[in-house]
Amino acid sequence: MDTLGRTKQTKRNMKIGNEYISLEITCKRSTNVDPISQDTVEKCIKIALEAHEGQRDRDGNAVILHPLLVGSMGVTDAEKCVGFLHDVVEDTDWTFNDLRNEQIPEEVIDALKLCTHDDSKDYFEYVKQIIDSGNMTAIHVKLNDLRHNIARGKAFGYPDLVAKHEKALLMIEDSLQNK
After folding, report:
1. Average pLDDT score over residue span 10-35
2. Domain 8-177 is classified in which CATH homologous superfamily?
């Protein structure tokens, strides 16, 4: 971040399993004009920690590591909040009403609704719904989610998941290029 408060991007390599992946880390100075407070960002982290407590992924790692990374990849505070919470309703007992009761902003809940996959819906229809919504917070969070899932899938040997997530990533990237 420079002294004028502009966004700064850096590339870092992160080791997952036996492979290094390249992550773009974007830092943004929070300002008073940002409608989401840092208290709300912290609350979203705390909710995610509580909701995912004790959960393990297919490789035995703490589930919370994924939403923490996806949230950290967010550029805006809304993207961070949605990233931290993106699996809470989908994978735990938490509901959107529970999040409202915690005073999570509707802007965050609206994007979370889009990012929450209902298993009764085809995965690629779900991705198309995110694209068609035009909700840039949901689109950016889904991009971050897919990028991390692709990296994890490659590192831990899940070619079927990598192929599915790469197809979804391409769908979103193509839609953004055509706008």
Report:
1. 51
2. Hypothetical protein af1432 (1.10.3210.10)
